[in-house]
Amino acid sequence: MPSLSSLSDVALHAVWAHLLGDLHAHVAVAQTCRRLRDFCNRHDDLWRAACFTAGFGRPQRSPVAFADEEPPSWKALACAIVKHASDCEIGSCMRANACFAQQYKHLPYTGLRTLHPYQLVEFHPLYFYLHFSQSAHASQGGGHRRSISAHFPTLSPSPSPPPPVSIPDAVSILLTHMPTFPECRYAQYGPLCRHPNASCAFATFPPVDRLEFENADGDVFMIVENTEGCTILDVNRALVQLIPADQYHLEVAYEHYQELALTSGLSLTQYASAVVREKGFLGDHEYPFLKHIINSF
Ligand SMILES: [Zn+2]
């Protein structure tokens, strides 16, 4: 009986295809022996298929920060996702695509396709946390939960009268891009770019390369594009562009950083200098208003 290492590339392709949908298995197989490692290293397109069928895309990086650099390989992304799943304690990040696993099983991998304009897309549940309302209400159990104010996207052209919409809350968006209290139970939650699994999850099922968001008047106020499929992080980063660069939002950010610095036992200068170095898994995250605050010292 031939061993895996003695199989031809054609046979290895067949083994690989059999594993589609199980990213952990792909990473494990790629580490089995040198022959498989070499095979996997030569075929980044296979890693893209492995990520796609597990519901993960590649968020776009900041074009300013990485104008001349290649994006991370699909293999690097797959390995980061698998590793993070064992490090992160947030269920909705560790099992980011459990909600769509069955649907992906029945979606043959052919890359992204043009959708019929009337085809319905389903939003990833994490999408609704990208602009959560700040207000917290006591739940029946005595704990707290965040209330979510959702707005709804429509593919263009809209197949039917749009559902009720509201422009997302800028302060709520702001908070998804900022650090949280180091000793707080939710410290690990923010910002989103610290979580490759939640970040790389496709924003919709099936994945699409363009999303247009309309307000109640039917005016498009935000467009998200990624030719490899719009991810949760792509939407998150488009949303941050909606935050007005005004005094009010600067003060909200300033107060938040000030409070975090106090809690950490640092001066605001020390805290800002430390946190500005945290760039997230793509190495390009910028904390809102932080540069402005640093420059004012
Ligand atoms: Zn995570």
Write the layout of secondary structure elements.
Layout: H1 9-18, H2 23-30, H3 34-42, H4 44-53, H5 74-87, H6 91-94, H7 101-105, E1 122-123, E2 136-138, E3 144-146, H8 170-176, H9 196-200, E4 204-205, E5 210-214, E6 220-225, H10 232-240, H11 247-264, H12 268-275, H13 290-295
Antiparallel strand pairs: 1-4, 2-3, 5-6
Helix pairs in contact: 4-5, 11-12
Bound molecules: zinc ion (ZN).
Zinc ion binds next to helix 9.
Element pattern in H and E: HHHHHHHEEEHHEEEHHHH
What small-molecule ligands were found? Answer: zinc ion
Q: Walk across the major sheet and give the strand order.
A: 1-4
Low-confidence stretches: 132-165, 184-188
Radius of gyration: 21 Å
Assign an overall shape. Answer: globular
Query: Taking all residues together, what is the mean pLDDT?
Result: 78
Which oligomerization state do the chains in this entry correspond to? single chain
Distance between the termini: 70 Å
Number of helices: 13
Fraction in helix: 25-40%
DSSP strand (E) fraction? 5-15%
Largest sheet: 2 strands, antiparallel
Class by SSE composition? mainly alpha
Q: Can you count the beta strands? A: 6
Which key terms come to mind for this protein?
297 residues, mainly alpha, two-stranded antiparallel sheet, two-stranded antiparallel ribbon, 6 strands, globular, binds zinc ion
